[in-house]
């Protein structure tokens, strides 16, 4: 009987040892597969980096003129959004950069995010051509994250630019310089609603003459005229200033 107990004990010990050895082997295989995947990703990243040096260049300038203090999480990616550093505008102006303002800082950061978005889309296309669909999906997610950050930064830029341009202007007159066409229409719509609520008779929008626009001339004025026409609102250019659009609300 004691011999039978010894045999059972030895058998159980052998089973435990075999189980431990099996787990260890599985861990090694799993680590080996993970290591292979990591090695493939690193090799592909080196290859695409060599093919597209613009990505590393744009990454170095992704957060110009500011400290990165706000991080917005999109899915499993974390996108850094540059936030203006306190006192930095004053330092820049003291160094001779009087034309630097908060809105331009936000706009520059938005353009950097747009560059990164375009590059991520390019990398996703390259990955798909190489049939590396997992990596392509990650680049697609990265591109979407950069797009979201770009939209947030452009909103902040528009708000800062609009507030800066309209400091000191009398009520009922609004300067749309520095805004994109959609931003200008959005702010104009808001001011029109406020003016109607105040029962104003007229409202004036400084749209400019298009002298500093790219090829094609003025862009904000035609867009605003189309917006007003769609709503059957009466408007005319100021006879003494062709860069001002006067809307009649009476």
Annotation keywords:
250 residues, single chain, four-stranded mixed beta sheet, 62% helix, two-stranded antiparallel ribbon, alpha+beta
How would you summarize this macromolecular structure in one to three sentences?
The chain is built from 7 helices and 6 strands.
Helix-strand blueprint:
Elements (H helix, E strand, L loop, with lengths): L1 H50 L1 H8 L6 E8 L2 E7 L4 H7 L7 H28 L3 H33 L7 E3 L5 H17 L4 E5 L13 H11 L3 E5 L2 E8 L2
Parallel strand pairs: 3-4
Antiparallel strand pairs: 1-2, 4-6, 5-6
Helix pairs in contact: 1-2, 2-4, 4-5, 6-7
Helix-strand string? HHEEHHHEHEHEE
Largest sheet composition: 4 strands, mixed
Shape: elongated
Portion in strands:
5-15%
Determine the structural class based on helices, strands and strand pairing. Answer: alpha+beta
Radius of gyration based on Cα positions:
30 Å
Supply the number of helical segments: 7
How far is the N terminus from the C terminus? 111 Å
Tell me, rounded to a whole number, the average pLDDT.
Answer: 75
Strand order of the largest sheet: 3-4-6-5
How many strands in all?
6
Helix content: 55-70%
Give the uncertain stretches in residue-range form.
49-81
């Amino acid at each position: 009987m004691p011999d039978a107990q010894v045999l059972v004990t030895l058998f159980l010990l052998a089973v435990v040892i075999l189980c431990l050895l099996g787990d260890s082997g599985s861990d090694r295989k799993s680590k080996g597969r993970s290591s292979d995947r990591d090695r493939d990703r690193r090799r592909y990243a080196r290859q695409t980096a060599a093919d597209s040096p613009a990505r590393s260049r744009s990454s170095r300038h992704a957060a110009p003129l500011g400290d990165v203090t706000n991080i917005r999480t999109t899915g499993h990616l974390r996108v850094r959004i540059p936030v203006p550093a306190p006192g930095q505008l004053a330092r820049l102006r003291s160094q001779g950069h009087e034309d630097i303002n908060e809105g331009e800082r936000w706009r520059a950061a938005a353009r950097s995010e747009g560059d990164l978005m375009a590059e991520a889309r390019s990398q996703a296309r390259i990955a798909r051509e190489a049939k590396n669909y997992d990596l392509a999906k990650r680049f697609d997610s990265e591109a979407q994250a950069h797009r979201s950050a770009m939209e947030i930064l452009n909103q902040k830029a528009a708000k800062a630019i609009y507030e800066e341009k309209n400091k000191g202007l009398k009520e009922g007159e609004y300067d749309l310089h520095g805004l994109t066409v959609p931003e200008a229409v959005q702010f104009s719509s808001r001011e029109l609603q406020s003016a109607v609520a105040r029962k104003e008779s007229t409202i004036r929008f400084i749209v400019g003459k298009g002298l500093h626009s790219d090829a094609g001339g003025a862009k904000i004025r035609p867009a605003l005229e189309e917006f007003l026409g769609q709503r059957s609102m009466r408007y005319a250019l100021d006879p003494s200033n062709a860069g001002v659009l006067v809307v009649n609300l009476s």
